[in-house]
Amino acid sequence: MTAPVIGFAGMTHLGVNSAAAAAARGYSTVWFDPDRAMVGRLESGEFPVVEPGLVELANTNRERISFTSDATALGRCAVVYIACDVPTDEQGDSDLSSVRRLIDTVSAGLARDAVLVVLCQVPPGFTRALDWPVAQRYYQVETLVFGSAVERALHPERFIVGCADPGVPLPGPYRGFLEAFGCPVLPMRYESAELAKIAINCCLVASVTVANTLAGLSERIGADWNEIVPALRLAEETGSHVELVRASLADSRQRRDWPLRTLHQELLAGHPDAVVAVLGLSYKENTHSTKNSPSLALIRHLGPWPLRVHDPVVPARAAGHPRATGCATALEAATGADALAIMTPWPAYREVSPSDLRRVMRGRVILDPYRVLDGAAARAAGFDYFALGVPVLRAGEKATRA
């Protein structure tokens, strides 16, 4: 029996990684995006996202990949995933208009027995309201993580699938495709699956809040809390019990503003000409995405000060700062700076020597939220070293564990 063709609409981080994993599992895939320029770049091997192993995976399975900006090409697909981005505003409210437009564009050319699967995050009730036969309409929870999306797309721990009736077997082509990944398939009502995605985020919020609280305590009592991860926002439209969420958001904002507060306390107050070097612009290492980037959140509040910035993937113009100078290397960015803020823990930054930084920097302040550098080595080189979860290490003070 010939394997069904699987389509992916929306060449986003989610769409590209999911499509590459489908091709790697042996399925012919159609990669659709209405942006012709985007499709042209994909055909030439220029991918819009950065993930370790993504380009190699796509190149290895190139014979099973078809790029197109013509929605009618999806007509030969038995299963089509909707994988566009869902923009959110500063309050975390979702704009679903782009999802609806893409679904309208895609569904117009699909065979009536094709399975339509919403893969992007939507609020409960969205999938049930779509104008597509319920027997061929599903919602699937995505759990990709920036920086390890290829691994998670290839080897998911389970598939959560929203259905009109979870007691009815999934259509053959869709079921066979999911089973090819060798993990459990958990069918449930549309609304349950849509809420499951939000519930996963809620659990992340709770765990991060605990970590942030303990990290703040660690800094004050001399303890050492190893890692802090950004909290995720959860909306509260349903009127549910949201005190935990509000506390999580407040805590997240407090931790997010830590670099700015520290810079002002240590340097910026009273020094209008201070130069700040910022290493990293992306949301996290091994990705191109800048959405919710701690670095950009910091840069937005550094308007009056000249910046020197570097990121291995994201161009300096993404900083959106009128006085930002893009630099070719991390050390070049640090040259002449009064303070250095390492805002994305790219692996390459771990190779930067504090002694080399001491040689090129004018000032002696290093902010390292993710503890990329060796704090003891930074202090020994003559820096005041600030990191989340540990007490300040000041040059000249008696050495303790960093």
Name some characteristics of this structure.
single chain, about 400 residues, alpha/beta, Rossmann fold, 3 domains, 6-stranded parallel beta sheet, 13 helices, 14 strands, about 35% helix, about 15% strand, elongated
Describe it for me?
With 402 residues, the protein is an alpha/beta fold. It folds into three domains: 6-193, 3-Layer(aba) Sandwich (Rossmann fold), CATH 3.40.50; 199-254; 258-386, 3-Layer(aba) Sandwich (Rossmann fold), CATH 3.40.50.720. The chain contains 13 helices and 14 strands. The chain has helices at residues 13-24, 36-43, 54-60, 97-107, 149-154, 172-179, 190-221, 243-256, 258-268, 294-299, 330-334, 354-360, 375-380, and strands spanning 6-9, 29-32, 65-68, 79-82, 115-118, 137-140, 159-163, 185-189, 276-279, 307-310, 324-326, 339-342, 365-367, 384-386. Strand 1 (6-9), helix 1 and strand 2 form a beta-alpha-beta unit. Helix 1 packs across helix 3 and helix 7 (190-221) crosses helix 8. The radius of gyration is 24 Å and the shape is elongated. The protein starts with 5 loop residues before the first strand and ends in a 16-residue tail after the last strand.
